[in-house]
Design the sequence.
């Protein structure tokens, strides 16, 4: 799942070498902290948060197979 977040984020930004994903696992949920270059923050969030919402939707759909709740925090 971490790789999915990383691949999607790298495809969206101008500086893919600065994409970092940190996984924090809980019992029933997983939090992914996504950090990108400051100038790429707008590209990850998108207009009115549409890109961030789409990213969260895709990752949540992929997490259904593992029966876990996934959250993405963009920092």
Sequence:
């Amino acid at each position: 799942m971490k790789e999915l977040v990383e691949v999607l984020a790298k495809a969206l930004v101008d500086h893919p070498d600065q994409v970092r994903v940190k996984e924090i696992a809980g019992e029933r949920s997983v939090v992914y902290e996504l950090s990108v270059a400051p100038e790429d923050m707008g590209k990850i969030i998108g207009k009115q948060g549409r890109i961030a919402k789409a990213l969260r939707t895709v990752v949540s759909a992929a997490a259904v197979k593992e029966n876990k709740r996934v959250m993405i925090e963009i920092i």
Notes: The chain has three helices and three strands. Residues 1-74 form a domain with the GMP Synthetase; Chain A, domain 3 fold (CATH 3.30.300.20). The chain has one domain: 1-74. The longest helix spans residues 50-63.
